[in-house]
């Protein structure tokens, strides 16, 4: 993993000192709305059976995103390997940083890194069908819709019945960013 810089962000491999910022994201019900219906996460324990990532600063494939200008925490991005040729893109940003193009900027940097340096041939991402903002980010960075799947997660919340959409980009379809 390398430190990645974009116009406004610095993405650095996460460290244990990022733990409090990561956990603060999970306290915001709007940030968690499409992950678990907006319920608070037990701040001291991560559920190993959770259907979504809850980084604590020791994960090898998670980058912490901070504003380059002032080092303010923005969120995190991940490029989680499924195997040596396929990785899953994920991200979570503070609500105050939504709608500014930062998710697109950070996710695009990870896609480019993944194809240039990570050795991946395919990168995919998933989002709840009803999470239109995340879907727009995936489309802006060049991922293509592949399918919708039903989800059987513990707990029910609005929108879960519509399932999860999957998007992907292959090295052959990547424009070289």
Mean pLDDT: 83
pLDDT < 50 stretches: 48-52
Fourth-level CATH superfamily: Gcn5-related N-acetyltransferase (GNAT)
Identify the CATH class: Alpha Beta
Number of domains: 1
Main pleated sheet:
8 strands, mixed
Kindly estimate the percentage of residues that lie in beta strands according to DSSP. 25-35%
Give the strand tally: 8
Structural class: alpha+beta
The ordered H/E elements are EEHHEEEHEHEE
Shape: globular
Please tell me how large the radius of gyration is: 15 Å
The second-level CATH architecture is 3-Layer(aba) Sandwich
Distance linking N and C termini: 18 Å
The percent range for helix content is 10-25%
Enter the CATH topology name: Aminopeptidase
Number of helices: 4
**Strand order, largest beta sheet:** 1-2-3-4-5-6-8-7
Describe the fold and architecture.
This protein is α+β, with helices and mostly antiparallel strands and 177 residues long. It has a single domain (4-173), classed as Gcn5-related N-acetyltransferase (GNAT) (Aminopeptidase). 23% of the residues lie in helices and 28% in strands. The protein has helices at 19-27, 29-36, 102-116, 132-140, and strands spanning 4-5, 9-13, 62-67, 73-81, 86-93, 122-128, 144-149, 164-170. Strands 1-2-3-4-5-6-8-7 form an eight-stranded mixed sheet, with helices on both faces. It starts with a strand and ends in a 7-residue tail after the last strand.
């Amino acid at each position: 993993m390398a430190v990645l810089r974009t116009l406004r962000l610095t993405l650095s491999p996460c460290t244990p000192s990022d733990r409090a910022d990561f956990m603060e994201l999970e306290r915001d019900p709007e940030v968690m709305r499409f992950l678990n219906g907006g319920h608070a996460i037990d701040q001291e324990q991560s559920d190993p059976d959770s259907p979504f990532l809850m980084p604590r600063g020791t994960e090898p494939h998670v980058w912490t995103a901070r504003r380059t200008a002032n080092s303010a925490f923005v969120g995190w991005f991940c490029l989680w390997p499924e195997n040596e040729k396929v990785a899953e893109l994920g991200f979570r940003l503070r609500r105050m940083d939504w709608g500014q193009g930062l998710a697109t900027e950070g996710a695009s940097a990870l896609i480019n890194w993944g194809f240039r340096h990570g050795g991946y041939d395919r990168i995919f991402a998933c989002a709840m069908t009803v999470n239109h903002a995340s879907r727009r980010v995936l489309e802006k960075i060049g991922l293509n819709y592949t399918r919708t799947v039903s989800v059987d997660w513990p707990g029910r919340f609005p929108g879960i019945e519509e399932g999860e959409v999957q998007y992907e980009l292959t090295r052959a379809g990547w424009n070289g960013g």
